[in-house]
């Protein structure tokens, strides 16, 4: 420092100490700029105490000079500030931050006094520093945003290249720029420079503090997002937070999209980690993402519009969501404002992905043109659950609520397929299991939510009981701390159904066995309800009690320690003591107890439990002695003690008691715990009972075959109740003799059955109600025999020839090997020869399956066993005819009765019932394995089904379908004797075809697909050949044949269509083959042609000679009764096909204008795929329209058939309108020739024929009056209200059609205007003119009633309100 500078510094310091700041400014104005720069540099670079004081004095002096109005004040202030900023940029790394903070604050105070030139100079001085070092001075963090915002307010300024460091203007050229332009250039330049890694957050914080335009925000956000790829993982949360703060200026959608895209790419790179470093980085990424979710959640709480942008992004990219974006949405759901919207969005995404997958697999005709979905919702859920254990734990509660909500939603009726709902429910169950095992803080909430649904009996409560059972089975110790929640819910047992209580008790059984306090609470609640006032409440509690007995007995059957076995034995004895008290209550309770106890004794673990059997033996032995009749009487039971002499009601349900006693005796015999035989042993008692019942007559029970059994008289009630008890006891004796291993007397069973049959016939014939109608439908309703007993006997009397001939059969294993089976089958030949007895057993088995099909109480393995017996023992015999064409049936199957149903018919009904039950449980895929390849594990309690190779599974299913097809064909050959049997078999064949069709569509094994295709193709051609044969005119038979044909018709396409893989991962342009629909729908087209020809004959209309076919089928089977049934089946198939068309229309790629702008010029995959899908959809609609054209061109013989055709046309218009509306949202898909062909056919040709059919329909109403004598009143068979309903129904049907046609025309007009293509000339029929119905010119059947007519108000309701949509179309 020179002496002059030192003197100047001393002078300025002295003026500063006296606060003579104006003089300081004047002194500075006299100095050169270099001197001022030198003073500031020397002061700020000094290491002495008080560094920066002189600089502050200079700033204050120049500011005071500017305030005084001096002409050079602003210039001096600018020079000082520029020198300060320059020195800060050079020495900002100085650790003495207090000095820089004071100077920065002072600069901020004098910023409004700076001139435009000074502001520009300072701003671009900082920009030069950013360009050079890649960083910004920390002390200027608060000053720089204000400086740049002030720069943006400057007006026009003439600048040169020197003013902006040779970047704002050309060399040696003066230009005029505004402050906003300079600010925009500053920001653009800052975004184009390279930023130092340690200064990223600082630069981002500076930029987001500025007042930015929408374009500038997008530019800054894009720069920050690119910079995120170059930093460490630990720096990402801070960068994302700066982006979230930047989004307050706008462009929220793009910022959110950029954040998610960045993390999606990172997950894709690290997802398949193999090395230890990659796995470590993957875990670190999860922790970082968890922190970012917290930042996003906090940012959304501060700015709700950011949450709206996040939801909008999720809706737009729902098909490509990643696990991170999915977790962010779950984090957003924790905010109350967005909870419902996010939950519905994610639930819809989960269900729609599964529904789309199900639809895509099943639609062969459009599948080659579609790609696999972008994201799998199941994988997303599992990924979130897996990573919630580290980093993502804040989304766990929202994930739990999503799963609970989804399970509730899928239990209700919705628009998604049952397969998708089942898959979603199973996925949510697995997620809840994993979350319960991983996170302790959500366990209480999960248990609480489950119990709330159980208490309030919601539609999904049974699914939640299954979940509770899984949770308890997986880790009972994890559930035990929350047992108080379950105990609190037990107070609502009295309002639960039996099924609910059984499921609840079965779920908490492990807690009951191990937790003393919980066990005491549950038994206390059950004891209280067992002695409640209401009988229904006691029945419910009794169901829960038997579940406890079953679980306790089953636990003793398992291996356990001595101490644990003693505890469980004590529990069993305690529960049995409570049961003993129940057996002393009212007859209704005792009967329910006996019935459930009888079911319990069918289980192997109960028959092997000595403690249970010995306790029950003492109870039943004592009870039997009370009602045992003297041996001098032929009746072994004193039935007078069982019926009240005054009220004639049953006081002792002795029939249920004897059945349970028989099961108990059989269990004692098999377990060898019966003790020494004697006169009072259970076996000897039953030997005496069976013998005496076989000799007894009705008079021995004080009954008369010609007596009074009516329910409207006291004597009839007494005789009826006594007869029921007698029949029940005989049935128990039959069941005992059938299952007894000590007393084998087949003749005695036949004698007992003859008594049972005779008594049952009398009671069924003579038991009538007050209206003289029979109350009992058949003898099977009077039987208490259980399904296991009937299955064991039916397996012998309807023996499988394959098992009989093959010693190595899978079922021929110890102890029931081939020798045992042959011997026992020969031993029961007397039973097998008795057709009535075999039919009775089949009817009992059928009743047991059907009466509990809705409750799902019969185990699946028993249903499979019955299906195996029904097919292999009866129906399979019909597939083996002799050379003469006569069926080679066994003697018992060949016998037919004029009144009773044949064994074959009951066997076919049993197979249909088993098919229905298995289909409702989602286990129909086990049927063909059980029937064609039976195994012991299929007919025994087993939760894990056997694993079978895909090719073998397809072969077994094809063999069963072939067998059912041959059986039906041979039955039809015996027409009309076996028409009913064939009709029933076709029902099972249809169910199996539907199942195999789905299996073939999603099968990836080429050999299995080939087998399935061959079988289904043959079945479709066979079904069509039947329609042209000489069949009886049976509506049900033809309907079932048509159902089989429609289920197999997709397989009429060439085999090459099914040779392709089910799904494509990459886009492949596949040429659209217009002949595919001709292959597939050709048989249905010929069938519809036959229906139309027969309809013309029935309506006395001559057929067109040009439409005659050389292979004209037998039209005698098409009658006025069969045609409506066939048209109904075709309408259902038509609606299902249009449902597939609607879904395929939604697969057109919908791209917004922004997406189209960002798409590369040569990227046309989406457009080509959309055009191909649209051409295929239009081709499908055109083919379906051609089928409908045949029906619309024909006058149907009945009103019902006409209504179905009009509904089909209505559905067709709705699907075409849906396609047209989809084209409006697909801006890149042009109007194709295929679309114009459909438009011309539907809106021109079909509309014309529909108009004629509607006129003919209402003309039929006019013709219902007597045309020869118009004054004569028509005699109506229905009431006045029925006639009114008929008119309203017709009015609604037509008005709905016309309204749908109006919508179609509306969308067609919008598409034409959007693409600037004239399409109006294809709309040949005017809705306003041609479809206007003149109500006054129509005949009103209500006016023909006897002197009465509708009042004015009622008449107005019959008008066709075409100006407003009908009620059933509002949802569209």
Rg over CA atoms, rounded to whole Å, is: 43 Å
> What does the average pLDDT come to?
79
Shape: elongated
- Discrete helix count: 59
DSSP E strands, number: 2
**Residue share in β-strands:** under 5%
Low-confidence stretches: 165-170, 1062-1067, 1260-1280, 1334-1372
The N- and C-terminal alpha carbons lie at a distance of 89 Å
- Roughly what percent helix? 55-70%
Biggest sheet overview: 2 strands, antiparallel
Classification by helices and strands: mainly alpha
Read across the widest sheet, the strand sequence of neighbours is 1-2
Task: Give the gist of this structure.
The chain has 1372 residues and is mainly alpha-helical. The model is unreliable at 165-170, 1062-1067, 1260-1280 and 1334-1372 (pLDDT under 50).
Structural account:
The structure is a single chain. This protein is mainly alpha-helical. It is built from 59 helices and 2 strands. A two-stranded antiparallel sheet has the order 1-2. Helix 18 packs parallel to helix 20, helix 27 runs antiparallel to helix 28 and helix 32 (610-627) crosses helix 33 (654-671). The chain is elongated. The N and C termini lie far apart (89 Å). 42% of the residues are buried.
Topology, pairings included?
Layout: H1 3-17, H2 21-29, H3 33-45, H4 53-67, H5 73-91, H6 97-110, H7 116-133, H8 143-151, E1 157-159, E2 175-177, H9 179-192, H10 200-208, H11 214-227, H12 236-246, H13 252-270, H14 276-302, H15 304-316, H16 323-332, H17 339-362, H18 377-387, H19 396-411, H20 418-438, H21 443-455, H22 461-474, H23 476-479, H24 483-489, H25 498-507, H26 509-514, H27 516-530, H28 535-557, H29 562-582, H30 587-600, H31 604-607, H32 610-627, H33 654-671, H34 682-695, H35 714-739, H36 746-766, H37 787-797, H38 801-805, H39 818-827, H40 829-833, H41 835-851, H42 860-873, H43 891-894, H44 903-920, H45 927-932, H46 950-973, H47 979-1002, H48 1006-1027, H49 1035-1048, H50 1055-1059, H51 1076-1098, H52 1122-1145, H53 1153-1158, H54 1165-1192, H55 1199-1225, H56 1233-1263, H57 1280-1315, H58 1327-1330, H59 1352-1357
Antiparallel strand pairs: 1-2
